[in-house]
Amino acid sequence: MKTAIVTGGSRGIGRSVAVALSQKGYFVCVNYLRDRSGAGETLNEILETGGCGMTFRADVRNPHEIGEMFEAACANGALSVLVNNAGVSHIGLLQRMSDTEIRNVIDTDLLGTLFCSREAIPRLLQNHSGSIVNIASVWGVCGASCETVYSAAKAGVAGFTKALAKELGPSGINVNCVSPGVIDTEMNSGLDLGSLAEQTLAGRIGEPEEIARAVVFLTENSYITGQNIIIDGGFIS
Question: What are the catalytic residues?
Answer without folding.
Answer: 150
